[in-house]
Specification:
Helix content is 69%, strand content 0%. With 205 residues, the protein is mainly α.
Length: 205
């Protein structure tokens, strides 16, 4: 029976042959960042590594190819996704993870599917992958990276809230399309943070 380590090595070889060099390096870097966060929060290292490694497996395809392949395999696409197809690689990537790489674990598939927009009620692996994709060592564009890299190891929910807020403000500033799911996710975390603050105040913390 194949071990998880053997499976990961096989996946790396497959991804290296299909993705461009920087995308592959990014995927490996995200996988290790996921592992670090999983260590911090007591989550499965193997699941975290697999989610990070495979999260961009569909990035080998162009936007038009992603749309065509999603439709071919019966994946429903929203109007917003069709207007900003860059996010579709997450949905199709989850399909590939299940059908091409044999991943059956629903937590891993969920994390891959929501790593671009997030979703209300995100589980721990969903948050780990979303954040790892933002803070991995090869990222260098976002102005708040230093704070997010620190905060990620203190509080996943606060980190999600601040990354989402920054992302929405950035997209608004450049006139970009904001997927409604990103707005819904931000609103969910905003409410969660407010509830946490209220609970802490009630306890006198």
């Amino acid at each position: 029976m194949i071990t998880i380590n053997e499976q990961i090595v096989t996946f790396r070889k497959q991804l290296k042959s299909k993705l461009d060099t920087m995308r592959y390096e990014h995927s490996v870097s995200v996988s290790y960042t996921c592992i670090a966060l999983a260590m911090r929060y007591g989550f499965s290292l193997e699941k975290a590594e697999l989610a990070g490694l495979l999260h961009d497996c569909a990035k080998r395809y162009t936007d038009n190819e992603l749309i065509a392949r999603s439709q071919k395999h019966g994946l429903s696409l929203t109007e917003s996704e069709l207007k900003a197809p860059a996010v579709i690689h997450a949905k199709y990537g989850a399909w590939m993870a299940r059908n091409k790489f044999g991943i059956q674990d629903e937590e891993i598939l969920s994390a891959i599917q929501c790593h671009t927009t997030g979703k209300p009620g995100m589980g721990i692996l969903d948050k780990i992958l979303y954040i790892a994709d933002y803070i991995e060592p090869r990222r260098d564009k976002a102005s708040n990276l230093a704070r997010m890299r620190y905060l990620a190891f203190q509080d996943l929910d606060q980190t999600m809230y601040e990354i989402l807020a920054g992302t929405i403000n950035y997209l608004k500033g450049k006139g970009g399309c904001i997927d409604p799911m990103t707005i819904q996710t931000f609103t969910w975390f905003e409410k969660l943070i407010q509830e946490k603050c209220s609970a802490a105040e009630a306890k006198g913390e």
